[in-house]
Amino acid sequence: RVTMSGVLLVVLLVFTIVCKGKCYDEACTVHPKDPVIKMGSDIQIFFTAPLRSPCRNISSFNPDQLFWKLNDERIPEDQYSAINSTVFAVHIRNFTRRSGQNQCNVRMFGLCEKNIFCLFINFSTVPPQKPTNISCVLFFSTAFTCYWDVGRNTFLYTTYTLIREVLNENETCQSKTNECTFGDGNVYHFDVHTVVIKAENVLGKVYSEKQHLDPMTVVKTSPPEGVVITPMLKKVIRVKWKTAHELRGHSYLTLICQVKSQESDSNTTVIHTVTNGWTEMLDIQDVKLCTSYIVSVQCSLNGSIYWSDWSKESTALSLMDVEFVQLHLWRKIKAPTSEGDRAVLLMWKGLQPSDGCDLVQGYKLTIEEMNGQVETITFSLSNMRTLRNVSKKAHELRIVAYSSNSTTSEAAVTIPALGEALPPVVGVQAYPHSGQIFVSWNSSDIPVNKYVIDWSVDWSNYDWEETKATNISIKDKLERFRLYSIAVTPIYDEGPGQEAIIHTYLEEGEPGKIPLVKALDIKATEAAIKWTEVPENERRGFIRNYTVFYRKEEGPELSITVSSDILEHHLSHLEPNTKYTLHVMASTNAGGSNSSTVVFRTLKYDSSFIKAISVIGGLGILLMVAMGISCFILVRKILFPEVPSPRISSIGVWPLECSPKHHHGKN
User: Fold this and answer.
1) Rounded Cα gap, residues 478 and 432, in angstroms
2) What is the mean pLDDT of residues 601-628?
3) Ranges for the Fibronectin type-III domain (predicted)?
């Protein structure tokens, strides 16, 4: 008989002519027909060719021309032998393969071969091993099943017999695998079982060690049925179930059950033990309000190592009970106006709107000015924040959630009067790591009840948490490349302290481009370069510095780096009447981005040179004018001397030699 795995030996006697013919299964005989050996053993195969057998009629048949192959590999001739003129043998030594095809061939004319017979052989590795690791399960009132480890593969058809002894009577169960079941009512609940496994194949048989079992220690029941969850007030859900049908009527047995509960959006399960499973009920306490729970149940008889399978899951939504709701209230205060009025963003949490949680109708917010007016505002359940204006006086804020007949406990926070805030914390640090922002600060010398940490990328959208520690990890809904403003506020007995603010990024990236770059006050060897900041929402990180890159045509690129608070730079030592190109790069820790390119040309002459030339030219003109006037006066004096006017001269004494009388007398 041949198994599906092909482990039973099959002997086929066929005659095959490799050149033209095929393998035959008659005329010649092979011995042994069903060889079975252990791995590593030797085997001798005999081929008998009677003188008058048809195989002797094959053309060119000659015993001296016989040769053997194993899996198409020729067997060395020193392993051949001839018993007599009609019986020929081959000796295969130390066979370690799982199977082999042994062929006897005869050489014909030239290189052609004829295959006289083909023998397909499968080999056994070892006899069956002793079954180990026996475990049994008594399925209450229905069946008794045992399992075992069969050991390594024998490559042979092997049967396993489970022998059970109860009350000095033996019963057997046969199997081809590693398990076997007694059923059809052959179940004994309270009598000791002795079990043993027999493994058997053609190479032998072996028995396992005997196992003595108390059936009640290996009994397994069916899972409970009809699990129902009933949500109740006081943060309770009630779970009911029905005991497995085969256990009904056996209430004298001790039944233990376990109830497994899990929030629908969580992977964490909680196991609740019911020591008296016959009660078929459990109240799970302290559940979360308005939360979907998944519940299933399993049971076991006392003393058994087995639990039933889990029942089908049942789901229900816990009730909303405002008596157990704890609200949390916080505020963010904007800078005051000139009159001292302040805009305040109020935020609260503790409830999340959810289907089925309609026992809470809304919120009532009370804003009380110290020694002043009181304002109460009502909000729907979906509203979790509001923006209000308050004066410079101190205020107390209170909020409750309410239903038709009750309210939650009150949450309160104060707004100090303008200029009266208590001290802030010091040493605030923030740094990103692994998708989170870690914030830490120094503890205060003044006793602190708690700390409130709020963070946002814009003023209207804050998240916040409370802690008693001096550090916190922010990890929800964070965005890359956005600047976070993080504030830490201590809450003292007297009220909130002043907030300490720090800014950080979850992750920095390359900044956006500088919007505008200009070259101003251009001279022959100098130019002033000015630029505008990268818009805040495009910075994607802290701007660490700016770098001005400039070059003349066919010249090397030069650069100068300035700090992030400088938005201009004066270039000097430029060449006159030369074309320059430049751009400015803004840099963060993650990289930099360049502005658009600006082109300018220096002047041929500097303005001071032109001014000097103008002054010198003006002075030259003035000098020439002055010289012309002087020359004119001098020439006039020479060419046109002045003659005294008698009219304006006075009577005087003329010299004698020049007087008219003397002159006339001589004549």
Assistant:
1) 11
2) 79
3) 223-321, 510-606
User: Does the pLDDT of residue 661 top 50, yes or no?
Assistant: no
User: d(Cα 323, Cα 196) in Å, to the nearest integer?
Assistant: 63
Residue 527 sits at the vertex; the CA angle it makes with 521 and 533, to the nearest 5 degrees, is: 90
pLDDT reported for residue 327:
87
**What does the H/E/C string look like for 65-101?**
HEEEEECCEECCHHHEEECCCCEEEEEECCCCCCEEE
The pLDDT of 475-489, averaged and rounded, is 91
Judge contact between 596 and 517, C-beta under 8 A: yes
Quote the pLDDT of residue 16. Answer: 33
- CATH fold group of domain 221-319: Immunoglobulin-like (2.60.40)
Q: Is 640 left (phi over 0), alpha (psi -120 to 50) or beta?
A: beta
Helix (H, G, I), strand (E, B) or coil at 48: strand
Structure tokens at 26: 């008659």
The domain defined by 517-607 folds into Immunoglobulin-like (2.60.40)
Residue among 567, 601, 564 at smallest CA distance from 582: 601
Task: Compute how many other C-beta atoms are within 10 angstroms of the C-beta atom of residue 201.
Answer: 19
CATH 2.60.40.10 segments of the chain: 16-122, 132-217, 221-319, 323-415, 429-505, 517-607
Q: What does each C-alpha distance from 361 to 33, 55, 324, 378, 407 come to in angstroms?
A: 91, 103, 15, 10, 10
| Per-residue pLDDT band at 646 (split at 50, 70, 90) | low
Which range is most confident: 8-12, 42-46, 549-553?
549-553
Q: Minimal CA–CA distance to 89: which of 21, 32, 166, 153?
A: 32
Q: How far apart are CA 500 and CA 447, in angstroms?
A: 17
Whether the model clears a pTM of 0.85, i.e. scores above it, the answer is no
Distance CA 639, CA 518 (A): 67
Mapped onto helix, strand or coil, the DSSP state of residue 50 is: coil
Q: Is residue 120 predicted with pLDDT exceeding 60? A: no
Give the model's pLDDT for residue 425.
94
Kind of pairing between the strands at 225-232 and 219-220: unpaired
Report the b/e string of 395-427 with b at 16+ CB within 10 A. bebbbbbebeeeebeebebbbbebeebbebbee
pLDDT in tens, 366-393: 999 988 889 999 998 888 889 999 999 9
Whether the CB-CB separation of 368 and 341 falls below 8 Å is answered with no
Let me know: does 92 contact 79? Beta carbons within 8 Å: yes
Paired tokens of 116: 């006289």
Average pLDDT rounded to a whole number, residues 51-76: 74
CA distance 143 to 218: 12
Supply the CATH classification number for the domain 323-415.
2.60.40.10
Does 2.60.40.10 match the CATH number of domain 429-505?
Answer: yes
Please give the share of the chain, as a percent, with pLDDT higher than 90.
48
The b/e string for 120-155 (b: 16+ C-beta within 10 A; e otherwise) is ebbbbbebbbebeebebbbbbbbbbbbbbebbeebb
Domain 132-217 falls under CATH 2.60.40.10: yes
